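Need C-alpha cells for this chain, all 193 residues.
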Amino acid sequence: SSASVTQSFKGVRRNVSSNVTASINTVTTIPFSSTASDYDTNTFANVSNNSFDIPSDISYAEVYMSLDFTPSGANPTYGNDSYIGRITKNGTTVAEVTRGSLNSSGSALTQADVGYISTGVIAVSQGDQFKFILELGGGYSQVIKQTSFVGVKGVLSTPAVTASKVHGVKSLADGTYATLSESANVITVDADI
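Here are the C-alpha cells for all 193 residues:
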C-alpha cells in the first residue's frame, strides 16, 4: 500500500514599488497602492483595504514582512527614537518587533531597519485579513524603501491524498517470479532470491 500527498503552493508577495513615508508619532499601514505584485496565486491582495484576505482551502499560513528604511533626516543617527513593526490579523497583533536607537549609556545609535518579521505558521480561516503596520515614536520620519516587501505562504487545509495498493507478479531477470501479498498493512514477498 502506498500513498502520495499532493500540495499546490498558494501565496502572495507584494514589493514596495514607490517610497512610502512614515511620519513620527503616527501609525502607518503599508499602502498596497504603493506596492506591486510579485505573485498572487489566489487573489489574496485587497488593495483598497491594504490587506491580504485569506481565500478558501487554506487553514495555516505564514505571514511576513520586511521593511527597509531610508532616513529622511540629514543624519541617520537619532536619539529618543523608537519604532514598531507589526502584523495584524483581523485587527489583533500576531507578530511584532520593537526597535529603539539608544544604547545602554543613552548615546544615539544608527537607525536599524525593522527587518524581517514573521508570524510563523499560524491557523487561518477564509476571510481573515492581515495588515502590515509601522509605528514611529519620536526622532525623524522614515522612508520605507523599495526593497521592502510583504507576503503570505499558505498551506492547503485538506491535502489531496491518493492511496493505492499494488499486488501481483513481477518477472525477474532470469525468468523467475516474485509474488507480493498484503495483509493487515504488511507486504510479504515470496521470491527466488
